[in-house]
Amino acid sequence: ALAVRFLTRRFIGEYGDTEFIYSHTLTMDGREILFHIWDVPNSQEQAEKGSSEEKRIQWADSFVLVYSICDRDSFNLLPLKIQFIKAAKERQSQEKVSIVIVGNKRDLHHQRVVSSEEGRLLARSLDCGFYEVS
């Protein structure tokens, strides 16, 4: 949902469990920046496929990991995913990997099970950026 919103400025309510690669050019500060976004839905089945996940990690320059503030399990997956990403990227390069954690569905505050403070603390402890969005 976030990738489509970023690319099209539209919100679409329903998404399948399919991965896509999107390309998008954006002008920032007078420079054109080309984004290639590999949108990968998370599932337990995919989490068990370590080798294909490592290929995605090697492909990427930075990462945005999204969890639902209404879903504790999606939040609880983040520390292991971040450790996996950092370990895979450090084997490739000594540069710090750029990771941002995004808590989604902020508009559903009445269904919240993960506090903003928990998200901020996790991000700080893992040296990641943090945002909450709707």
What would you say this structure looks like, in words?
The strands form two sheets. The protein has a three-stranded parallel β-sheet with strand order 3-4-5. A two-stranded antiparallel ribbon has the order 1-2. The chain has two domains: 1-41, no CATH class; 53-133, 3-Layer(aba) Sandwich (Rossmann fold). It is α/β, with parallel strands linked by helices. It has helices at 2-8, 44-47, 50-59, 72-76, 78-92, 116-125; strands spanning 20-28, 31-39, 62-68, 98-104, 129-132. It has six helices and five strands, in the order H-E-E-H-H-E-H-H-E-H-E.
Low-confidence stretches: 44-48
Structural class: alpha/beta
Helix content percent band: 25-40%
Q: Strand count, sense and closure of the main sheet?
A: 3 strands, parallel
Number of structural domains: 2
Work out the helix count. 6
Superfamily (CATH H level) name of the largest domain:
P-loop containing nucleotide triphosphate hydrolases
CATH topology of the largest domain: Rossmann fold
CA radius of gyration is 15 Å
Order of helices and strands: HEEHHEHHEHE
Number of strands: 5
Oligomer: single chain
- CATH architecture identity of the largest domain: 3-Layer(aba) Sandwich
Strand order of the largest sheet: 3-4-5
Give the N-to-C terminal Cα separation: 10 Å
Mean pLDDT: 84
Shape: globular
Residue share in β-strands: 25-35%
What is the CATH class name of the largest domain? Alpha Beta
